[in-house]
# Entry
Amino acid sequence: MRMRKKKHGAERIEACAELLIKEPTAASDPRNAGVYFKDARPVRLEIGCGKGNFAVGMAVAHPDVNFIAVERVADVCCLALEKAMAAKEQRPNDNLRFVIGNAEHLGEWFPPHSIEGIYLNFSDPWPKKGYAKRRLTHRNFLKAYREMLIEGGYLYLKTDNEGLFDFSLEEFEAEGLTVEFVTRDLHSSEKADGNVMTEYEKNFSSQGMPIYSAWVRF
# Structure
């Protein structure tokens, strides 16, 4: 469902400008101090952050990691930015930034082998025939992630869509990736403790729907 355009959206985004990376560049290593963050730390990336619940929660829970949350839709990212600003005091290490942009251009934003982990949470399954290449776990995207991730870096997948999950497992195998954890019921698994839920995840879980998850090492 399309989100209604936010009133004064541009002004609201600008009010959160301190958390927004407006011009990402692959010329600088995001792990280095002074590039996007004051302090040098490992960097993890969430692609499709939605309203920001996961990104904000992870940044609070892991102050030793810098997080960059990417969202294609500006009006959605507006809500994530405002949520992050409201929780700013919970992040004394100032370790969260946002990018408004399309995942297809990620290779232009970060230098090779500079990202420690990538999160794909409840990505669009693109179920229609002929749309497979748009899925964020398609092998073309996996090749791009391989270029961005450090050696031994991880892709963390969560979805409610079994079709997308099965497709993803096939793509991981085709790319020769190591699936170190896989479950068709995340909330009943050993990874349930410490799991930060997205807005979608909370809704699906409340309806008794299973959450599929995989951790893949590159």
Q: What stands out?
A: The mean pLDDT is 94. Residues 43-217 form a domain with the Rossmann fold fold (CATH 3.40.50.150). The longest strand covers residues 149-159. Helices lie at 9-14, 53-61, 74-86, 139-148, 162-174, 199-206.
